[in-house]
Amino acid sequence: MEKLNIYGDMRINKKGRFGCDISSQRLDDLDKKAIRHILSQRKHLSCIDLGCGEGKVGIIMSMIGANVVLIDKVNIAERIEPIASNFKLNLKFVNKDARELQKKDLPLPLDICYSQRFIHYLRFSEAEKLIDALSKNMTEGSMLFISASGLNSELGEAYPDKNKPVAKRFAFLNKKLSEKHNIVEPVCLYTEKDLENLITRFGFKVKSLKSSDFGNVKGIFEKI
Questions:
Q1: C-alpha closest to that of 70 among 96, 45, 44, 88
Q2: Neighbour-count burial of 206, counting CB atoms closer than 10 A to its CB (0-12 exposed, 13-18 middle, 19+ buried)
Q3: d(CA 40, CA 117)
């Protein structure tokens, strides 16, 4: 099986057109930090896994005591419902496009928003609206764990909008990289500064912000 990146991940396609399934193969540092944060708290936290894919990390969060809502436009209800029932987990799946989320879809208060390799599938203006809506359901001290495909990663090679400001970036990857990573939808690729500007304008402060060795951008933000 073809290796996908420098970490040795394999090309395992998820349902749909939104990238290969990385989370089922390993937990990365952002996953681990989100899980450790939940374990460090002395209360049951309400969390969402936005753009959850197969839902592995959200399931783990639920198993360690969090109340979790998984959200994705690809329907994985048949996978999630038996797990929630058999293990008696506070785990729910919402089959919805993130751009159509309503307040009733979210646990309140929202203590943790976790989203890996998803936000880049939205236009920057759509991402702004989403972060604004999430922020309004989060209170001081709530945490946002988020990653985005990086402009300076392999995906940025021959990216048509590379030299455009982030607000105007939204383009298809070149054919070779699109096929390799199973990303066949247009994307808005991010730099660290782009992600920081997106999140902090809606009442968050940076706790951690860096690019992975592959070049994807990962941030941890706290609601203030």
A1: 96
A2: middle
A3: 25
Give every CB contact of residue 121 below 8 A, 6+ residues apart in sequence.
18, 51, 185, 187, 188
- Nearest Cα residue to 60 out of 82, 95, 29, 36: 36
Q: Please name every residue paired with 206 in a beta bridge, in sequence order, or none if there are none.
A: 221
Q: Looking at the whole model, is its pTM more than 0.90? A: no
Query: 95 - beta bridge partners?
Result: 72
Indicate the domain borders of the chain: 44-115+124-189+196-223
Angle (nearest 5°) at CA 207 between 190 and 192: 15
CATH number of 44-115+124-189+196-223: 3.40.50.150
**Per-run averaged pLDDT (10 residues), the chain, 224 residues:** 51 53 72 97 93 95 96 96 96 96 91 97 98 96 98 96 98 94 96 98 98 96 98
